[in-house]
Amino acid sequence: MDNLRIYRIDAFTTERGHGNAAGVVSNAHGLDEAQMQAIAAELGHSETAFVLPARDASHDVHIRFFTPITEVPVCGHATVAAHYALALEGGAMGVRRQLTGAGVQVVETRYVEDDFAIRIRQSPPTFAKPLAPDMVLELLAALCLEPSDLDLRCPPQFVSTGHGKLMVAIRRRERLRAMEPDLAHLVELGSRVGTNGYFVFTLDTHEGEDALSHGRMFAPAIGVDEDPVTGNANGPLGAYLVRHGLLEAVDGVARFRGRQQAGNGRRGYVDVSVQVEGGEPVAVTIEGRAVLADHSERPR
């Protein structure tokens, strides 16, 4: 049998060593779930994508995503990484339909500046009710924030476009940078607030910046203490900002760039487009660039 082709791709960046590192096994046919989980744990990235043949005519490729400790339904940066790896192998440009645990997504690979950009149509946005006041106070305690840190325009709320996050807006970027959450408390809190991922963001930007938002994302319950750049946080963020009147549409589409930087310094960005109908967000697309960090082969 052919060797496994294994990549490390830095996604949502054009700088090697930044963005969000993902593993990719581009020819994962024949691997069972236990083998995929073992490879993901060995590689140690926040997510590893396993590219499998299509199961039926509803899609062109099947991709499964594993953190070091569990499978997740879908992952934005690992999707960018997987389709970037396929492009490096000579895969066709244009549109593919990928089957994920969150359903079928449309993914477009295109040439940009002598490289590839990956555009992902996420699942339609869904919104939970904003957190009750008592849960907001416990959330702030777990995040090691004060009530005065909150941006009162933005209620803490779970939003999903396939693999959702709890949106938590704060007022100042310097507070965002200094955060040191209580990760064990976040894990314990997750089942009660209905999330495994907490996206803390701010709209505190400087004049002339190319970004509308800056964020950090924590998901210790699935083995990701902090994710450097997160497609399944910035995409839902776009829908959330439209819902709360903080992002305006032009000709039915609201666009922005979300920047993210982890405590370890890894940074990157996600370009987000939200289709808006009747003032409501109805569809979300994210786009990211990527850089090849490493490639190897091993026997199956």
TrEMBL record:
Q: Extract the InterPro entries matched here.
A: Phenazine_PhzF-like
What GO MF terms are annotated?
isomerase activity
Pfam families to which the protein is assigned, alphabetical: PhzC-PhzF
Superkingdom of source: Bacteria
Transmembrane segment boundaries: none
Q: What are the entry keywords?
A: Isomerase
**PANTHER family reported for this sequence:** BIOSYNTHESIS PROTEIN, PUTATIVE-RELATED, PHENAZINE BIOSYNTHESIS PROTEIN
Q: List the NCBIfam families hit by this protein, alphabetically.
A: PhzF_family
State the family named in the UniProt similarity comment for this chain: Belongs to the PhzF family.
Q: What is this protein called?
A: PhzF family phenazine biosynthesis isomerase
Q: Give the species this sequence originates from.
A: Lysobacter niastensis
